[in-house]
Specification:
Molecular chaperone DnaK; 114 residues; 0% strand; mainly alpha; zinc-finger; metal-binding; zinc
Length: 114
Amino acid sequence: MTGQQLEQCKQKLLQMRAELAARQAASSEVGDTGTVVLDQQSVGRLSRIDAMQSQQMALESQRRRELVAKQVEAALKRIEEDDYGYCLECDEEIDPRRLLFNPVVTCCIDCADK
């Protein structure tokens, strides 16, 4: 991997980190993950089910954002430690095109297919 390709991956990772932080901030402002009120006088049963489904979808989105954020941080740490771009399974170099497409990948194509 060339220095230019490494820098492109690093910039993409930093951009991903910023986007995830912005989404997290926007999500916490909306507050979709709060407790669903079960007052039958103010909300019908179908509305409560819809609210509960919406809450679960928001929680899953938050979980996925946290997972990707951890992957981004791990990739940035590997860059700092000069260990970025090598498969964690077989220790072979990962194709730079694969890393440019998705800079958080940790395995080469061969090991990912196993």
